[in-house]
Amino acid sequence: TVSAPAIAQAQPTIKWRLTSSFPKSLDTLYGGAEVLANRLRAMTNGKFDIRVFAGGEIVPGLQALDAVQQGTVECCHTAPYYYVGKDKTFALGCSIPFGMNARQMNAWVYYGGGQKLLDEFYANYNIVSFMGGNSGTQMGGWFRKEIKNLGDIKGLKMRVAGLGGTVFERLGAVPQQIAGGDIYPALEKGTIDAAEWVGPYDDEKLGFFKVAKNYYYPGWWEPGPAFSFYVNKKEWDKLPKEYQEAFQAAAYEANVTMLAEYDHKNPPALSRLLSQGVKLQKYSDEIMNAAYKAAMEIYAEESAKNPAFKKIYTEYDKYRKTQNAWFSVADTTMDRFLQTHK
Amino acid sequence: TVSAPAIAQAQPTIKWRLTSSFPKSLDTLYGGAEVLANRLRAMTNGKFDIRVFAGGEIVPGLQALDAVQQGTVECCHTAPYYYVGKDKTFALGCSIPFGMNARQMNAWVYYGGGQKLLDEFYANYNIVSFMGGNSGTQMGGWFRKEIKNLGDIKGLKMRVAGLGGTVFERLGAVPQQIAGGDIYPALEKGTIDAAEWVGPYDDEKLGFFKVAKNYYYPGWWEPGPAFSFYVNKKEWDKLPKEYQEAFQAAAYEANVTMLAEYDHKNPPALSRLLSQGVKLQKYSDEIMNAAYKAAMEIYAEESAKNPAFKKIYTEYDKYRKTQNAWFSVADTTMDRFLQTHK
Looking at residue A69, what is its pLDDT? Predict the structure, then answer.
């Protein structure tokens, strides 16, 4: 039944700015913020209007958190692990080497107590957070030469960020921090031996396959990175209740659609790469096992000196183990069968 | 910036009824409709008010589609494969044996053209549809005796619904249609030899583990069933644009949160079942391979006589193969490694 429209006090017009950590060229990642903003405008007849700015337009991509914390902008869309330089705890809200996959992160954050733990930590930064996208398991990078064992890792100069870089360093590699646009020339000239980026769809655009033919999998340092919307706490508290609710629904949408969009775009991109002579290579057990061991050592060391990390990691790790025990039964058994029956 | 609230014409109050196909006891499934309704009320200050009724309260669970089609209620929350008796094409919007998993369904429906194909088909039933939940890969049922090979399937009386039942029939079993509440006594008395339901969390509540100790996996007839909201087309068209937008955002939320909730609840439920002496059993390759072959024959036969099925299945099958080729690389390799490193 539709009652006659009432004359009532309407919702206020609110204009926010969102700084994305991503360039427009990473269209699926950048698009997560557009999904949120477009839906919010459409739900409120344009009254809750969030304008999205690409990384660099207001502040550099890696300063998105600071901009929200300081109130330069009301919100951002970012990868929490960009801020491990401030505190490694940030990585637990995004992705850690050998951590949880996309579905497991959703289970943990939405239902397993993860949101509460993260919010306690984020309160130190004056922000509230909402998951807003996932790439699925990323790829393990482009290598000019094959790497078969740990010996091949020693001295390897690789563009790899965050905790993945810390693990590679323990294995004897020399991790490099290089911005997206500078990776290709460095790889072409041989200034670096290897570089990781995202997955087939994004990697293809940067053209790495032309200068490094060995494409390794899986990206064990990013089993399911969760991207987030951070909102300045004071601005959040000022929102009308209805707009807070609308923001949350739109963030759920951005979360599920980004992963679906990556899952849609990656398969044909991988096919195109393979048709260009790319060699798909699996990380050897020797390398995977050594990296796993190094990662667990890093988590133990960080837990010993960082109470915030320890508190969240302890719960995260317990949850991850329970999840993996279950996923190994129905889901992965099914997936493996289907992958071998074409 | 927050402008002063304007006095303007507010949105109308709209009251809808939603019939769920599920009983309240299946709280995670039933809860999908509550997630939608609660968020819509909260976003609209109670003005878009959808009241949720459990299966049987207005119409029986399996008549939800008819109730929406005929306008008895404005919308429903259901499992499309309940309607394979009308047309097997319905199963393609939900789950088919050896079909796509949850992430793949999202990719196909949201980005791979699936929504358009399904909407063309649903137009015959006067409905528009929105995905609204997924259980992940289900379990393969409870068996009083071990089944090791095809010989053990012959003559087996099993409670299994839909296309899964059709496949079991080709393998020589005698599928039974039994409503949820009647399964336990039938299994206890030995009137049936086996029964499938959902997964650990829902199965535990029905107590099957007390009378049939062999718990098989994976549920190859439900690799990732997608549940849907169906809305009567005329009622949908009458909604204000803002409410249509809010409905869509809330449906995305219901979709991602149901899967997360199942992923959260299933692992501890499986642990509890195992501590009760349940024997976890994997379907043998012989049975899986024969079931896969039978399923593919059924799809070919249906395609030969049903143009609607053929049109959608052809695209579905192509998409599924491309998806599986990609998932076998990064995601499943990562998942398997983690499942074997505790």
Answer: 98
- For residue B258, give the amino acid letter: M
The number of angstroms, rounded, from the C-alpha of B245 to the middle of its chain's C-alpha atoms is 24
**Residue A1 binned pLDDT confidence (cut-offs 50, 70, 90):** very low
Query: Chain A within 8 Å of B297 (Cβ-Cβ)?
Result: no
Residue A255: enclosing H or E segment and its boundaries? helix A241-275
Cβ burial of A73 (10 Å; 0-12, 13-18, 19+) is buried
Give the pLDDT score at B9: 52
Q: How far is A218 from chain B (nearest CA, A)?
A: 4
User: By C-alpha distance, which of B259, B315, B329 is closest to B111?
Assistant: B315
Does this model's pTM top 0.80? yes
Contact (CB, 8 A) for B129 and B121: no
If contacts are CB pairs under 8 Å, which of residues 117-156 in chain A contact chain B? 136-140
Q: What is the pLDDT of residues B150-161, one digit of tens each?
A: 999 999 999 998
Task: Compute the nearest-CA separation of B338 from chain A (Å).
Answer: 7
Verify whether the Cβ–Cβ distance A334 to B101 is below 8 Å: yes
More confident residue, A2 or B73: B73
Residue B9: strand pairing partners: A7
Query: Taking 70 as the threshold, does the pLDDT of residue B6 lie above it?
Result: no
* A5 DSSP 8-state letter: P
Is residue B277 a contact partner of residue B75, using CB atoms and an 8 Å limit? no
Q: How many CB atoms are closer than 10 A to CB A240?
A: 17
Mutation site for B-interface testing, chosen from A43, A47, A220 by largest number of B Cβ within 10 Å: A43
Instruction: Tell me if B252 and A248 make a contact (CB, 8 A cut-off).
Output: no
